[in-house]
Protein backbone atom coordinates (compact mmCIF):
# COMPACT_ATOMS: atom_id res chain seq x y z
CA UNK A 1 0.00 0.00 0.00
CA UNK A 2 1.21 3.52 -0.78
CA UNK A 3 0.77 6.68 1.26
CA UNK A 4 2.42 10.10 1.54
CA UNK A 5 5.31 9.72 4.01
CA UNK A 6 5.75 11.84 7.15
CA UNK A 7 8.36 14.54 6.96
CA UNK A 8 11.04 13.08 9.24
CA UNK A 9 14.83 13.24 9.05
CA UNK A 10 14.85 9.51 8.27
CA UNK A 11 18.59 9.22 7.66
CA UNK A 12 19.44 10.48 11.15
CA UNK A 13 17.01 8.41 13.20
CA UNK A 14 18.52 6.40 16.04
CA UNK A 15 16.99 3.32 17.61
CA UNK A 16 14.41 5.09 19.75
CA UNK A 17 10.69 5.51 20.31
CA UNK A 18 8.79 7.92 18.12
CA UNK A 19 5.05 7.98 18.71
CA UNK A 20 3.22 6.98 15.53
CA UNK A 21 -0.47 7.46 14.78
CA UNK A 22 -2.00 4.07 15.46
CA UNK A 23 -1.56 0.96 17.57
CA UNK A 24 -3.41 -2.36 18.03
CA UNK A 25 -5.01 -3.42 21.33
CA UNK A 26 -6.74 -6.70 22.19
CA UNK A 27 -7.89 -7.92 25.60
CA UNK A 28 -8.15 -11.40 27.07
CA UNK A 29 -10.94 -11.89 29.60
CA UNK A 30 -13.10 -14.84 30.74
CA UNK A 31 -10.88 -17.25 28.84
CA UNK A 32 -11.03 -15.61 25.39
CA UNK A 33 -9.35 -12.92 23.29
CA UNK A 34 -11.57 -10.19 21.86
CA UNK A 35 -11.12 -9.14 18.22
CA UNK A 36 -8.94 -6.16 19.09
CA UNK A 37 -9.01 -2.67 17.59
CA UNK A 38 -6.69 -0.16 15.98
CA UNK A 39 -6.67 2.93 18.18
CA UNK A 40 -5.06 6.37 18.56
CA UNK A 41 -4.72 5.90 22.33
CA UNK A 42 -1.09 5.33 23.33
CA UNK A 43 -1.85 5.17 27.07
CA UNK A 44 -2.19 1.95 29.07
CA UNK A 45 -4.25 2.23 32.25
CA UNK A 46 -3.68 -0.59 34.74
CA UNK A 47 -4.74 -1.53 38.23
CA UNK A 48 -1.94 -0.89 40.75
CA UNK A 49 -1.68 -4.64 41.39
CA UNK A 50 -1.63 -5.79 37.74
CA UNK A 51 0.26 -9.07 37.23
CA UNK A 52 2.84 -7.45 34.98
CA UNK A 53 3.70 -4.86 37.65
CA UNK A 54 4.12 -7.42 40.44
CA UNK A 55 5.65 -10.50 38.82
CA UNK A 56 6.80 -9.27 35.40
CA UNK A 57 4.42 -11.48 33.44
CA UNK A 58 5.17 -10.06 30.02
CA UNK A 59 6.73 -11.04 26.72
CA UNK A 60 7.29 -9.30 23.41
CA UNK A 61 8.42 -9.56 19.82
CA UNK A 62 10.32 -7.40 17.36
CA UNK A 63 10.09 -7.28 13.58
CA UNK A 64 10.33 -4.69 10.83
CA UNK A 65 8.42 -3.25 7.89
CA UNK A 66 10.28 -1.87 4.86
CA UNK A 67 9.42 0.27 1.85
CA UNK A 68 10.58 -1.45 -1.34
CA UNK A 69 12.08 0.36 -4.33
CA UNK A 70 8.71 0.35 -6.11
CA UNK A 71 7.00 1.89 -3.07
CA UNK A 72 5.32 -1.15 -1.54
CA UNK A 73 5.43 -1.92 2.17
CA UNK A 74 6.60 -5.38 3.15
CA UNK A 75 7.32 -7.30 6.34
CA UNK A 76 9.92 -10.01 6.93
CA UNK A 77 8.65 -13.38 8.18
CA UNK A 78 6.01 -12.17 10.68
CA UNK A 79 4.68 -15.73 10.95
CA UNK A 80 7.89 -16.72 12.77
CA UNK A 81 7.45 -13.88 15.27
CA UNK A 82 3.86 -15.02 15.80
CA UNK A 83 5.02 -18.56 16.50
CA UNK A 84 7.84 -17.45 18.81
CA UNK A 85 5.46 -15.27 20.81
CA UNK A 86 3.14 -18.25 21.04
CA UNK A 87 6.04 -20.24 22.53
CA UNK A 88 6.96 -17.40 24.91
CA UNK A 89 3.35 -17.24 26.13
CA UNK A 90 3.20 -20.96 26.81
CA UNK A 91 6.38 -20.84 28.89
CA UNK A 92 5.07 -17.86 30.89
CA UNK A 93 1.56 -19.30 31.45
CA UNK A 94 0.03 -16.58 29.29
CA UNK A 95 -2.76 -17.18 26.73
CA UNK A 96 -1.14 -17.21 23.25
CA UNK A 97 -2.58 -14.80 20.71
CA UNK A 98 -3.51 -16.98 17.70
CA UNK A 99 -0.74 -17.04 15.08
CA UNK A 100 -2.96 -16.08 12.11
CA UNK A 101 -4.58 -13.23 14.07
CA UNK A 102 -1.14 -12.00 15.13
CA UNK A 103 -0.02 -11.74 11.50
CA UNK A 104 -3.27 -9.97 10.56
CA UNK A 105 -3.00 -7.55 13.51
CA UNK A 106 0.62 -6.70 12.63
CA UNK A 107 -0.41 -6.13 9.00
CA UNK A 108 -3.31 -3.88 10.04
CA UNK A 109 -1.11 -1.87 12.40
CA UNK A 110 1.55 -1.28 9.76
CA UNK A 111 -1.12 -0.36 7.19
CA UNK A 112 -2.56 2.19 9.63
CA UNK A 113 0.93 3.68 10.05
CA UNK A 114 1.98 3.49 6.39
CA UNK A 115 3.10 7.13 6.43
CA UNK A 116 5.63 6.23 9.13
CA UNK A 117 7.32 3.43 7.21
CA UNK A 118 10.63 5.04 6.20
CA UNK A 119 11.18 5.51 2.46
CA UNK A 120 13.30 3.11 0.43
CA UNK A 121 17.00 3.89 0.64
CA UNK A 122 16.70 6.08 3.74
CA UNK A 123 18.54 3.61 5.95
CA UNK A 124 15.60 3.55 8.38
CA UNK A 125 12.81 0.99 8.87
CA UNK A 126 9.58 0.71 10.83
CA UNK A 127 10.19 -1.36 13.96
CA UNK A 128 7.13 -3.29 15.10
CA UNK A 129 6.83 -4.24 18.76
CA UNK A 130 4.04 -6.70 19.65
CA UNK A 131 3.82 -7.29 23.42
CA UNK A 132 1.55 -8.87 25.99
CA UNK A 133 1.15 -8.48 29.74
CA UNK A 134 -0.94 -9.68 32.66
CA UNK A 135 -3.41 -6.89 33.38
CA UNK A 136 -5.66 -7.86 36.31
CA UNK A 137 -4.68 -7.69 40.01
CA UNK A 138 -2.42 -10.54 41.18
CA UNK A 139 -0.89 -10.70 44.65
CA UNK A 140 -0.25 -14.39 45.33
CA UNK A 141 2.36 -15.75 42.93
CA UNK A 142 0.24 -17.06 40.06
CA UNK A 143 -0.58 -16.18 36.46
CA UNK A 144 -3.01 -13.33 35.78
CA UNK A 145 -6.52 -14.11 34.48
CA UNK A 146 -6.66 -11.11 32.15
CA UNK A 147 -4.15 -9.93 29.57
CA UNK A 148 -3.61 -7.19 27.06
CA UNK A 149 -1.88 -7.70 23.70
CA UNK A 150 -0.67 -4.55 21.97
CA UNK A 151 1.34 -3.71 18.87
CA UNK A 152 3.20 -0.41 18.64
CA UNK A 153 5.35 0.78 15.78
CA UNK A 154 8.22 3.26 15.69
CA UNK A 155 10.54 4.33 12.87
CA UNK A 156 14.14 3.42 13.68
CA UNK A 157 17.68 3.82 12.41
CA UNK A 158 20.68 1.64 13.33
CA UNK A 159 20.62 -0.15 16.71
CA UNK A 160 24.31 0.56 17.30
CA UNK A 161 25.59 4.11 16.95
CA UNK A 162 28.03 4.45 14.07
CA UNK A 163 26.04 2.14 11.78
CA UNK A 164 28.25 -0.48 10.19
CA UNK A 165 31.50 0.25 12.09
CA UNK A 166 32.82 -2.84 13.89
CA UNK A 167 31.96 -2.97 17.57
CA UNK A 168 34.07 -3.71 20.62
CA UNK A 169 32.28 -5.94 23.10
CA UNK A 170 33.22 -7.57 26.40
CA UNK A 171 32.81 -11.00 27.90
CA UNK A 172 30.29 -10.45 30.67
CA UNK A 173 30.71 -11.47 34.29
CA UNK A 174 26.94 -11.71 34.54
CA UNK A 175 24.66 -14.43 33.24
CA UNK A 176 21.71 -13.58 31.06
CA UNK A 177 19.81 -16.83 31.43
CA UNK A 178 19.78 -19.84 33.74
CA UNK A 179 20.18 -23.45 32.60
CA UNK A 180 16.61 -24.70 31.99
CA UNK A 181 15.39 -21.10 32.44
CA UNK A 182 13.85 -18.62 30.01
CA UNK A 183 16.77 -17.68 27.75
CA UNK A 184 15.06 -19.29 24.74
CA UNK A 185 11.92 -17.12 24.94
CA UNK A 186 11.40 -13.40 24.59
CA UNK A 187 10.35 -12.66 28.16
CA UNK A 188 10.69 -9.11 29.46
CA UNK A 189 12.38 -10.53 32.54
CA UNK A 190 15.42 -11.62 30.47
CA UNK A 191 15.98 -8.01 29.49
CA UNK A 192 15.49 -6.71 33.04
CA UNK A 193 18.18 -9.22 34.05
CA UNK A 194 20.53 -7.78 31.43
CA UNK A 195 20.18 -4.09 32.31
CA UNK A 196 22.88 -3.95 34.96
CA UNK A 197 25.24 -5.83 32.65
CA UNK A 198 24.62 -3.52 29.69
CA UNK A 199 24.93 -0.36 31.78
CA UNK A 200 28.20 -1.71 33.19
CA UNK A 201 29.49 -2.57 29.70
CA UNK A 202 28.55 0.88 28.36
CA UNK A 203 30.25 2.62 31.32
CA UNK A 204 33.41 0.69 30.50
CA UNK A 205 33.18 1.74 26.85
CA UNK A 206 31.86 -1.48 25.30
CA UNK A 207 28.93 -1.64 22.91
CA UNK A 208 27.55 -4.98 24.14
CA UNK A 209 28.17 -8.08 26.24
CA UNK A 210 29.11 -11.55 25.14
CA UNK A 211 27.26 -13.84 27.53
CA UNK A 212 28.67 -17.27 28.22
CA UNK A 213 26.72 -20.43 28.99
CA UNK A 214 25.54 -20.14 32.58
CA UNK A 215 26.45 -23.71 33.57
CA UNK A 216 30.14 -23.85 32.62
CA UNK A 217 31.00 -20.31 31.46
CA UNK A 218 33.12 -21.75 28.67
CA UNK A 219 30.75 -21.54 25.69
CA UNK A 220 29.54 -18.52 23.72
CA UNK A 221 25.81 -17.83 24.04
CA UNK A 222 24.63 -14.49 22.65
CA UNK A 223 24.48 -10.78 23.44
CA UNK A 224 21.66 -8.90 25.18
CA UNK A 225 19.77 -8.44 21.92
CA UNK A 226 21.35 -10.52 19.15
CA UNK A 227 22.81 -13.93 18.28
CA UNK A 228 26.43 -14.45 17.20
CA UNK A 229 27.75 -15.38 13.79
CA UNK A 230 31.38 -16.27 13.24
CA UNK A 231 33.29 -17.00 10.06
CA UNK A 232 36.29 -19.33 10.06
CA UNK A 233 39.48 -18.56 8.14
CA UNK A 234 38.34 -20.94 5.40
CA UNK A 235 34.96 -19.22 5.04
CA UNK A 236 32.66 -21.52 7.04
CA UNK A 237 29.86 -19.75 8.89
CA UNK A 238 29.63 -20.90 12.52
CA UNK A 239 26.81 -19.99 14.87
CA UNK A 240 26.37 -21.09 18.51
CA UNK A 241 23.76 -23.70 19.33
CA UNK A 242 22.30 -23.58 22.84
CA UNK A 243 18.99 -24.17 24.59
CA UNK A 244 19.33 -20.93 26.51
CA UNK A 245 19.63 -18.44 23.63
CA UNK A 246 16.80 -16.81 21.72
CA UNK A 247 16.12 -18.62 18.43
CA UNK A 248 16.79 -15.56 16.28
CA UNK A 249 14.73 -15.32 13.11
CA UNK A 250 17.53 -13.33 11.50
CA UNK A 251 20.05 -16.04 12.37
CA UNK A 252 17.79 -18.82 11.05
CA UNK A 253 17.29 -16.82 7.85
CA UNK A 254 21.03 -16.19 7.47
CA UNK A 255 21.82 -19.87 7.88
CA UNK A 256 19.50 -20.52 4.92
CA UNK A 257 20.96 -17.62 2.92
CA UNK A 258 24.52 -18.82 3.59
CA UNK A 259 23.81 -22.43 2.61
CA UNK A 260 21.22 -22.18 -0.12
CA UNK A 261 21.95 -18.83 -1.77
CA UNK A 262 25.65 -18.20 -1.16
CA UNK A 263 26.72 -21.85 -1.16
CA UNK A 264 28.70 -21.51 2.07
CA UNK A 265 29.36 -24.21 4.62
CA UNK A 266 27.45 -23.62 7.87
CA UNK A 267 27.96 -25.17 11.28
CA UNK A 268 25.39 -24.72 14.03
CA UNK A 269 27.18 -26.06 17.08
CA UNK A 270 28.58 -25.28 20.48
CA UNK A 271 31.26 -22.60 20.22
CA UNK A 272 33.83 -22.30 22.99
CA UNK A 273 35.22 -18.96 24.10
CA UNK A 274 38.65 -20.54 23.65
CA UNK A 275 38.21 -20.96 19.89
CA UNK A 276 36.96 -17.40 19.22
CA UNK A 277 40.55 -16.18 18.69
CA UNK A 278 40.80 -18.50 15.68
CA UNK A 279 37.85 -17.02 13.76
CA UNK A 280 38.28 -14.53 10.92
CA UNK A 281 35.04 -12.56 11.32
CA UNK A 282 32.34 -12.00 13.93
CA UNK A 283 28.93 -10.38 13.73
CA UNK A 284 25.80 -9.88 15.80
CA UNK A 285 22.52 -10.69 14.09
CA UNK A 286 18.96 -9.77 14.96
CA UNK A 287 16.03 -7.68 13.82
CA UNK A 288 17.35 -4.54 15.50
CA UNK A 289 21.04 -5.32 14.93
CA UNK A 290 20.53 -6.63 11.33
CA UNK A 291 24.16 -7.80 11.11
CA UNK A 292 26.52 -5.64 13.10
CA UNK A 293 30.20 -6.52 12.76
CA UNK A 294 32.34 -7.12 15.83
CA UNK A 295 36.00 -6.14 15.56
CA UNK A 296 37.21 -6.82 19.08
CA UNK A 297 36.13 -8.97 22.00
CA UNK A 298 37.69 -8.24 25.39
CA UNK A 299 37.89 -11.10 27.87
CA UNK A 300 38.97 -9.67 31.24
CA UNK A 301 41.61 -7.43 29.72
CA UNK A 302 42.68 -9.94 27.08
CA UNK A 303 41.90 -8.59 23.62
CA UNK A 304 40.69 -10.89 20.89
CA UNK A 305 41.03 -8.91 17.63
CA UNK A 306 39.19 -10.17 14.58
CA UNK A 307 41.40 -10.24 11.46
CA UNK A 308 38.59 -8.32 9.69
CA UNK A 309 39.69 -5.28 11.72
CA UNK A 310 37.96 -2.19 13.11
CA UNK A 311 37.26 -0.32 9.88
CA UNK A 312 34.67 -2.36 8.02
CA UNK A 313 32.73 -5.62 7.91
CA UNK A 314 34.61 -8.73 6.92
CA UNK A 315 33.91 -10.02 3.40
CA UNK A 316 31.65 -12.94 4.32
CA UNK A 317 29.59 -10.96 6.84
CA UNK A 318 29.26 -8.24 4.18
CA UNK A 319 27.94 -10.78 1.64
CA UNK A 320 25.43 -12.09 4.16
CA UNK A 321 24.38 -8.54 5.03
CA UNK A 322 23.93 -7.52 1.38
CA UNK A 323 21.91 -10.63 0.57
CA UNK A 324 19.67 -10.45 3.63
CA UNK A 325 18.94 -6.73 3.33
CA UNK A 326 18.49 -7.12 -0.44
CA UNK A 327 15.78 -9.70 0.24
CA UNK A 328 14.17 -7.60 2.99
CA UNK A 329 14.09 -4.45 0.84
CA UNK A 330 12.73 -6.31 -2.18
CA UNK A 331 15.88 -5.91 -4.30
CA UNK A 332 16.63 -9.65 -4.39
CA UNK A 333 14.19 -12.49 -4.87
CA UNK A 334 13.10 -13.89 -1.51
CA UNK A 335 12.75 -17.54 -0.59
CA UNK A 336 9.09 -18.54 -0.71
CA UNK A 337 7.01 -17.22 2.19
CA UNK A 338 9.59 -14.80 3.60
CA UNK A 339 8.04 -11.52 2.43
CA UNK A 340 4.53 -10.39 3.35
CA UNK A 341 3.16 -7.44 1.39
CA UNK A 342 1.09 -5.07 3.53
N1 LIG B 1 18.75 -12.57 20.94
C1 LIG B 1 18.10 -11.72 21.73
C2 LIG B 1 18.36 -11.80 23.19
C3 LIG B 1 17.20 -10.80 21.19
O1 LIG B 1 16.55 -9.93 21.97
C4 LIG B 1 17.00 -10.77 19.80
C5 LIG B 1 16.04 -9.84 19.21
O2 LIG B 1 14.92 -10.16 18.98
C6 LIG B 1 17.71 -11.67 19.01
C7 LIG B 1 18.58 -12.55 19.61
C8 LIG B 1 17.53 -11.68 17.53
O3 LIG B 1 16.33 -12.30 17.18
P1 LIG B 1 15.59 -11.91 15.84
O4 LIG B 1 16.55 -12.17 14.74
O5 LIG B 1 14.43 -12.84 15.78
O6 LIG B 1 15.20 -10.50 15.94
C1 LIG C 1 14.98 -7.07 18.26
O1 LIG C 1 15.98 -7.19 17.56
O2 LIG C 1 13.84 -7.02 17.77
C2 LIG C 1 15.05 -7.04 19.71
O3 LIG C 1 14.07 -7.26 20.34
C3 LIG C 1 16.30 -6.69 20.34
C4 LIG C 1 16.13 -5.59 21.33
C5 LIG C 1 17.33 -5.58 22.17
C6 LIG C 1 15.88 -4.27 20.67
From TrEMBL:
Instruction: Report the family membership.
Output: Belongs to the class-IV pyridoxal-phosphate-dependent aminotransferase family.
Query: EC number(s) of the enzyme?
Result: 2.6.1.42
Q: Name one Pfam family in it.
A: Aminotran_4
Q: What is this protein called?
A: branched-chain-amino-acid transaminase
What's in the keyword line of the UniProt record?
Aminotransferase, Pyridoxal phosphate, Transferase
**Its annotated pathway?**
Amino-acid biosynthesis; L-valine biosynthesis; L-valine from pyruvate: step 4/4; Amino-acid biosynthesis; L-isoleucine biosynthesis; L-isoleucine from 2-oxobutanoate: step 4/4; Amino-acid biosynthesis; L-leucine biosynthesis; L-leucine from 3-methyl-2-oxobutanoate: step 4/4
Give the species: Lachnospira intestinalis
Alphabetically, the GO molecular function entries are: branched-chain-amino-acid transaminase activity
Output the superkingdom of the source species.
Answer: Bacteria
Amino acid sequence: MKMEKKNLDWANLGFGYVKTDKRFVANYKDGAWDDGVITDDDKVVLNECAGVLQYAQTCFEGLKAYTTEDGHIVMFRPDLNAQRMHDSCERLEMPPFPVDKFVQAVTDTVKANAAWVPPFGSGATLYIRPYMFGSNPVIGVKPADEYQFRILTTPVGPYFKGGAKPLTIKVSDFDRAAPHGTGHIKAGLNYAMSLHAIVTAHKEGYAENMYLDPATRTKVEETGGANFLFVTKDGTVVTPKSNSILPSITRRSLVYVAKEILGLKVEEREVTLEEVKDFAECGLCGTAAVISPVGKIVDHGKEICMPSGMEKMGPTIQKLYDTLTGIQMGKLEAPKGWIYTV
